[in-house]
Model the fold of this input.
Amino acid sequence: MSQLLLVNIKSLQGIDESGKLLKKGSEMQEWETISNAWLLTQNGCIANYGEMINLPQAYQGLPQHDCDGALVLPSFIDSHTHIVFAASREEEFVMRIKGKSYEEIAAAGGGILNSAAKLQNMSEDDLFEEAFFRLRKLMSWGTGAIEIKSGYGLTVADELKMLRVIKRLKAAVSIPVKATFLGAHAFPLAYKQNRRGYLDLIINEMLPQIAAEGLADYMDVFCDQGFFTPEETSELLIAAKQYGLKPKIHGNELGYTGGVQTAVKHNALSVDHLEYTGDAEIEALLNSNTMPVALPGCSFFLGIPYAPLRKMIDAGLPVCLASDYNPGSTPNGRMGFVLSLACTQMKLTPEEAMNAVTINAAYALELSHEFGSITKGKRANLVITKKVNSLAYLPYSFGEDLIENVLVDGKIIFPTQSF
Amino acid sequence: MSQLLLVNIKSLQGIDESGKLLKKGSEMQEWETISNAWLLTQNGCIANYGEMINLPQAYQGLPQHDCDGALVLPSFIDSHTHIVFAASREEEFVMRIKGKSYEEIAAAGGGILNSAAKLQNMSEDDLFEEAFFRLRKLMSWGTGAIEIKSGYGLTVADELKMLRVIKRLKAAVSIPVKATFLGAHAFPLAYKQNRRGYLDLIINEMLPQIAAEGLADYMDVFCDQGFFTPEETSELLIAAKQYGLKPKIHGNELGYTGGVQTAVKHNALSVDHLEYTGDAEIEALLNSNTMPVALPGCSFFLGIPYAPLRKMIDAGLPVCLASDYNPGSTPNGRMGFVLSLACTQMKLTPEEAMNAVTINAAYALELSHEFGSITKGKRANLVITKKVNSLAYLPYSFGEDLIENVLVDGKIIFPTQSF
Done:
């Protein structure tokens, strides 16, 4: 029986024994803490916790880690990433600085199709090595569960290659990894004049093979202007459901284009982006089980609006925040910075932001029964901060990484290497 | 004779043998590089550099550091900081999230006066210890020369205490530290109804003692609405000049309030903030020796406008970027993130942003004859990055620190400890 006792925790953060699987509206401000605390992990799970003055005698001989005035938090959960990619795209970044728009760069063969062209020329092994390095870096920054999408393949062979890389990543790390099939990320050049042909390719070729190899948990579609229409999205989601793939949607990044309504109609686990979210979208989400997911790193990097999370929380919705780590629109996945963006740019309180990257993010990956809060019996995926005074200090120190150690299944796995 | 040979530099960045002390307008795009390079330091200075294929035989036995595919850059120079402070102010950050404005928080006794109250109760030794930790952290992030301001004392004894701390910091580190007296940071509560009294205190008590102890290089005034008027600012700068303190100004952060014009009138070394810079301000700066300094971290954190640097460069001006590290409006000083803000939010190219944090920042501290570019004879304060493909990758990877090693006077001083 493996056990580890964390002692001298300045403040144990994010305790929840309510059994809630998500927090919405004013509940997002709920964030229970214990000052001067201990926490016991056992067989990979949170076994018990309490105040140092009440530390049971029986625990005092167990292997200990002295947190020395640091905070302990549930790990961040990153429910939306594209970390399998072949190359960075800083040249497009410079084009954009010089005045080109996202759509113009895409129209010139850049954007997603640029990533696809590079990925198609890279071996599965090389893709795995680079993605594994990125994943380990994210883990060192406190990400304790993650979703990874395909969508830079856009051919049968290359979408399968990406999903096999994700399957190898699942096996290679000890944190949960959810795989999302995003063949419907863009129409490849070869199908620009034959949309029907690409839909058929996804439905008749990709989905059956993905299902046969058990390569994906979820199906995602970029339902937005210039990409997939709500009708096309619906057809794809219905097809995917027959193979057991639950829906997620990229929606409302570029306009009020029906992504949210399509997500709700199909009972999607989440609808992600949401820079264009008005009253009709909020109303639709209020009557749904679909988690709204904002990606503030994308807004920061592209200079597009931030999703109106303040308004959404005030309307009673739950919200989740994710990194969107990808080489085109969000070339970074440090969740600590996502927290800073949420507080400084979207006016979430530190507590709301933490719920958005823990319990609500776990919900968006069907993990909130096991992850996303300090709860007895949940998995001990935890973050130990550097010495800080308060939770608010984390988003406040916006340019700085304040993670000292990371626990996965009750074991300290970082720092073991530097990045 | 101490020598160090850097070899296998993927790209040596920021070479300049032109003798320019600053770059303005289209010159800000100038950024010379050599691929696959070496660089020799000798007695703390840059002695020579070139391409690996032309590495002189005579150098091959010297102590070497293999840069292994990394970039080498001139160190960042941070020309505007407030790193001597007593306490973080994340509680005000949370107030602001909940809707209070900077002015409202200041009016309620928060803001600068909050920092002053805390600093007045802290010993010089404790202030030194905390500021020294911050300074070392900044150096580990690549800052190779820095300016530090007083201005949280606001009494004779406490302004002197802060400046003595800065003097101790100068002695404690090997990078250049410039000390700026900012007694005119705000009117202390005791003088709210007696502005004349505080001006007299600065002129008749603070300045003579500061000069007698040799505690400051520069004089700074917060010339903006709610703070010091242009007339008050002028009077203070004239008094300071008699003690040999050259002017700098905090101006145009809160409105079009004459800060720029006052700076130009007094031939200030720099005018800093500039969120409100229109055609009249640009015109004034074009006919001056005053360096305009933008502080994008403050705009990011407070949600105020960014200084219009794109327009200023296009009008032919030089611009500089600094961190403004302080506990109220910019609780972070990582210059790598300042670069990201410059490129993503202010639309500077990576080359323009680098000139703004190197040669032009050196100019703002009267250091550009010795620092701010890869130039034979200049001091070897350098940054070695992690393995990256291009200069643009640094601002592109916005949430990440990509500094591997830091050289000061030709010696590798980081990593020597982790932060």
